[in-house]
Amino acid sequence: MIYGGGCQGGEKMRKALTILGLFFIILVVIAEFVLPGIVRGTLRTKAEGRLATSDVTVTVDSAPAALLALGEAQALHIVAHQAKVGDVTVQELTLDGKGVRLDVPALVHGEGIRVRRADALQIRGIISEDNLREAIAAKIDRLEDVAVKISPDGVLATARVKLFGRKADVELEGDVVEDGGALYFRMSRLNVRNALIGTAKLSDMFGSFELAPANKLPFGLKLQSVTQKDGRIVLVAERRKDKD
After folding, report:
1. What are phi and psi for residue 78, nearest 5 degrees?
2. pTM over 0.90, yes/no
């Protein structure tokens, strides 16, 4: 009887260890495969909502992958196309991060994408001539048939506008610049042909305007540089090596 009781006790112990082992395996599988997928999917969903686009791809690498469940990402790469940043659409917005720690509770509870720490984090955006044309046409709604040319020397926008019952040809020259982390179109020259009043009196109707405020880039980054190139404008924001 004593030996039988011992055998039964040993059998129960083996079953308990087996159940515990299975439970541990399930936890490992969830941590290694399920939770990282949830983090990636949530990142993509939040980025789509923040940037008002459905064209977002997210790549997150960490070894072991279970670290993603804790928000630890050795490498983070996000690409969004036709992303909305303030009042301008960005043709392509790319984010690259290294040694990134995400705020997972904030992410899961719908508080947005927050970065607690990063060894390196950079956002690079490309604004096309068509993107800028749409923004200028939306900001100055009197304009029709807007065309935009971007070069290293600046921006030239041509359009037609109806003033006092007749059409006039408009030329706007200026630059897209950063000021305090915000993005602006700063007009340097206005020429209106065939108008009934002088160009000087029309400058207030057109003029300079803000394209995006300082808080519109993801991950709390502020715009640092704007470079005008042939056919496009390059935006860059970055930060390096910070701590919790």
Report:
1. -125, 130
2. no
